[in-house]
Design a protein that fits this description.
heterodimer, A: mainly alpha, B: mainly alpha, 2 strands, 69% helix
């Protein structure tokens, strides 16, 4: 896990646990706000794709894990794609050329693999509980659709059980893409700088 | 981590375990094919045949264990357990009951470090599979709901239930499928019954 995040050219210290927890809270607050806002647009029919894209972008820039970039190393230990031909002069001139990262930056050691697997174990439990809730809503919807429409999040918003199930599955996809990384960021204690003299 | 026998089927060899997993998924596939024959949402959701099929589909994963005590895979969340001194002395006086308690305790054995790692790794693989199933399922939902709502009413619930069953049984299926043959003599020697 990286100890700092480079966002729009600024270095943000992510060594303290409190900073990482704030980031996780902000990410989920943003996702929830977007989800609520986009419901009013088209009940996520087309904007659902945008929500998934936003989640992938969050992974790419902040969380990492399933994509290169972000705080957590890529889970599958995949080597980043590096062009064989030399970088264009323009990129070098603009200092945008990104050299091949050091092995330590993308390879997980044994401890990190264990942490990754345990985070997935915890995330899987959350996903299973979420699916059980979705299943109960779907069954109630099959028995009596009016019950589900009545207990929907906002009673004054006309919604159907099918919309609610679709929204819940969309939320489950977003959570499955972000939860393991969030668990890692949330639980990892404060990082201390390694001092070889100590 | 894996019990030596379930329903009379020996689970020590990987081949037998794979047949067991295949039989489980085949049984689930048959049940879901039957469930998807209930096209009308409200009336048939209350019929005994539907409820029996639904109950069967959702209780069958308990056979694989993991989330249940007594299945093929040891219960994941088993915590260290210590008998109280008075309960221990009572059991010492009653060997028949002691055997029964030890048998029950052998199903409730906390995972050691290696087993916890295997369990976590299986969940990691399952998590990735589940994500793709969810993603493709949602895309299919969007397409089908635009084409035919009848088709959605007919297969939607069965698909959701299949998703739930898959979530409950995928990690255990992976463990049963991938773990190598178990040395029975060694596992017997390390069992709580043998140690007692």
């Amino acid at each position: 896990m990286l100890a700092e995040l480079i966002l729009m050219g600024k270095r943000i210290d992510m060594a303290p646990q409190s900073h990482r927890r704030t980031l996780v809270v902000l990410i989920y607050a943003t996702l929830i706000s977007f989800m609520i806002a986009l419901w009013f647009v088209d009940r996520w029919r087309i904007t659902g794709v945008y929500l998934t894209t936003l989640t992938i972008l969050i992974n790419r820039l902040l969380l990492g894990g399933y994509h290169f970039g972000g705080l957590v190393k890529r889970f599958d230990d995949r080597t980043p794609v590096v062009r064989k031909e030399p970088p264009p002069f323009l990129l070098i001139g603009l200092r945008l050329y990104d050299p091949r990262p050091d092995d330590r930056e993308f390879r997980n050691d044994e401890r990190e693999l264990q942490q990754r697997d345990h985070a997935h174990y915890l995330a899987y439990q959350v996903m299973a509980i979420a699916l059980i809730v979705i299943w109960i809503i779907a069954y109630l919807n099959r028995l009596r659709p009016s019950i589900v429409a009545g207990i929907s999040l906002l009673a004054w918003v006309p919604t159907s059980g099918a919309d609610l199930i679709y929204g819940a599955i969309l939320a489950a996809i977003m959570v499955s893409l972000t939860l393991p990384q969030s668990i890692l960021l949330w639980t990892e204690p404060d990082m201390v700088e390694f001092d070889p003299e100590e | 981590m894996i019990r030596s026998r379930i329903l009379g089927i020996p689970l020590s060899t990987r081949t037998t375990r794979r047949y067991f997993v295949l039989a489980f998924w085949l049984a689930e596939a048959v049940i879901f094919a039957a469930l998807s024959r209930f096209p009308i949402p409200m009336e048939l959701a209350r019929t005994p045949a539907f409820l029996v099929l639904l109950g069967l589909a959702n209780t069958l994963p308990l056979l694989l264990g993991g989330i249940s005590v007594g299945g093929a895979v040891a219960f994941y969340e088993a915590k260290p357990f210590q008998l109280k001194p008075d309960a221990r002395s009572k059991l010492e006086r009653d060997p028949k009951r002691a055997r029964l308690v030890l048998r029950l305790l052998s199903y409730y054995r906390p995972a050691d470090e290696r087993e916890a790692q295997l369990r976590d790794a299986a969940h990691h693989r399952s998590h990735r599979m589940l994500f793709w199933v969810l993603y493709l399922g949602t895309m299919t939902y969007l397409v089908v709901s635009a084409v035919s709502l009848q088709l959605l009413a007919r297969y939607g619930f069965a698909f959701l239930d299949l998703l739930l069953v898959a979530t409950m049984s995928l990690p255990q299926s992976i463990l049963l499928w991938t773990l190598p043959d178990v040395d029975l003599e060694e596992s017997k020697a390390s069992s709580p019954e043998a140690q007692c």
